[in-house]
């Protein structure tokens, strides 16, 4: 029994073909939107590539770009097919191609759904990439005179100012690394030398942060040195001073920023997927209705259209049998005929007893 069978008159078939022609052109525009969203996400990720590790975080934008380009091509072909379906004679040119086209489009729309879901599952990979990338960037913050790293100080300062954040997970991360270059340290001072010797790795560690961690909303001048020493500053308690430094870590700030972008993109892609499914459903109805017209031989007659000619169980069973029979076609039946490489003796009848005649010797 056909699934979701609908009866179409010639007028309804023509209108369906015309509507699908318009919708396929709209789908070309949605393909351009998918491409643009993927390109936008790729550009936004590349803006902060200096503070990201080399992880596979470009899979989502690359997939959206590829799906968008494929959508433009598939829907352009679908518009041409639907336009020709108004005329029965023109439909004959596409009759054999329509079913493979519908199957390919179905798997393509499934890829769109996967792309939408990936936008919501990319958070963990992005968080790991930011965590490792920010650690490395903070470690090289002081290397302003080293080629390949000299830009990291400016990158981190601009990042902390723009996103109002400090450190990787918080401002205390700066306490655990040496972010001041040795060339700016006065080695003649005993305090500096003692601090370097007190560290196992010979690093100059201090409870201080770069200037870019200072909050612009602080009611007092920024305290960025001796942050945990209350006696070093007047009327100061580092446990209650909330507006002096940015409290949020840059990993959290960037993660929130990219999460909002990906959620918006994911919702847009999901809407596009629903739209593509509706267009694909209409194309399937048009294909089955036109094929039934050809069977009846009257281009003006009524015809039935459906999504599946049989039930889901019967369709799955028939497809499974087709696949199984295809596998059997490649097997060699040696049970009855033996090895096919061995010559089979001729079964020609030589006589009444199936005995070959005796050979008469030649007389010289």
List keywords for this structure.
single chain; 364 residues; mainly alpha; 2 strands; 55% helix; rod-shaped
Overview in brief:
The chain has helices at residues 10-47, 59-84, 88-121, 123-139, 152-162, 190-198, 250-296, 312-329; strands at residues 6-8, 303-305. It has 364 residues and is mainly α. It starts with 5 loop residues before the first strand and ends in a 35-residue tail after the last helix.
Could you characterize what this model shows?
With 364 residues, the protein is mainly alpha-helical. Helices cover 55% and strands 2% of the residues. The protein has 8 helices and 2 strands; from the N terminus they run βαααααααβα. The protein has helices at residues 10-47, 59-84, 88-121, 123-139, 152-162, 190-198, 250-296, 312-329; strands spanning 6-8, 303-305. The protein has a two-stranded antiparallel ribbon with strand order 1-2. Helix 2 (59-84) runs antiparallel to helix 3. It is rod-shaped, with a radius of gyration of 37 Å. Mean pLDDT is 82; it is low at 338-344 and 346-350.
> Strand tally, please?
2
The largest beta-sheet arranges its strands as 1-2
Largest sheet, in brief, is:
2 strands, antiparallel
How much helicity do the residues have?
40-55%
- Taken in chain order, the helices and strands follow as EHHHHHHHEH
Which spans have pLDDT < 50 for at least 5 consecutive residues?
338-344, 346-350
Q: What is the overall pLDDT average?
A: 82
What gross morphology would you assign? rod-shaped
Beta-strand content bin: under 5%
Secondary-structure-based class equals: mainly alpha
Alpha carbon gyration radius: 37 Å
Amino- and carboxy-terminal Cα gap = 82 Å
Number of helices: 8
């Amino acid at each position: 029994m056909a699934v979701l069978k609908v009866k179409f008159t010639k007028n309804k078939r023509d209108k369906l073909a015309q509507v699908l022609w318009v919708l396929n052109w709209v789908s070309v525009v949605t393909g351009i939107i998918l491409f643009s969203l993927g390109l936008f996400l790729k550009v936004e990720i590349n803006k902060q590539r200096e503070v990201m590790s080399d992880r596979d975080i470009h899979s989502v934008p690359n997939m959206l770009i590829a799906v968008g380009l494929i959508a433009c091509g598939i829907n352009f072909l679908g518009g041409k097919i639907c336009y020709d379906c108004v005329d029965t004679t023109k439909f004959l040119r596409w009759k054999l191609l329509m079913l493979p086209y519908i199957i390919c489009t179905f798997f393509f729309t499934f890829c769109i759904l996967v792309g939408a879901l990936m936008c919501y599952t990319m958070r963990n990979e992005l968080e790991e990439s930011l965590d490792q990338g920010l650690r490395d960037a903070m470690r090289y913050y002081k290397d302003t005179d080293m080629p390949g790293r000299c830009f990291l100080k400016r990158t981190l300062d601009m990042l902390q100012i723009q996103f109002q954040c400090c450190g990787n997970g918080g401002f205390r991360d700066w306490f655990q690394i040496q972010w001041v270059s040795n060339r700016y340290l006065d080695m003649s001072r005993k305090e500096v030398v003692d601090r370097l010797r007190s560290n196992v790795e010979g690093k100059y560690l201090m409870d201080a942060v770069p200037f870019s961690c200072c909050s612009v909303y602080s009611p007092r001048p920024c305290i960025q040195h001796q942050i945990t020493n209350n006696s070093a500053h007047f009327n100061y308690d580092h446990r209650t001073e909330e507006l002096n430094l940015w409290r949020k870590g840059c990993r959290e700030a960037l993660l929130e920023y990219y999460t909002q972008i990906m959620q918006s993109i994911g919702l847009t892609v999901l809407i596009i997927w629903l739209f593509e499914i509706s267009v694909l459903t209409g194309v399937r109805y048009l294909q089955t209705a036109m094929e039934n017209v050809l069977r009846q031989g009257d281009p003006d007659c009524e015809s039935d259209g459906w999504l599946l000619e049989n039930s889901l169980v019967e369709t799955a069973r028939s497809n499974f049998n087709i696949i199984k029979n295809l596998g059997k076609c490649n097997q060699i039946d040696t049970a009855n005929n033996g090895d096919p490489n061995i010559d089979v003796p001729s079964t020609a009848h030589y006589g009444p007893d199936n005995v070959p005649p005796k050979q008469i010797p030649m007389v010289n």
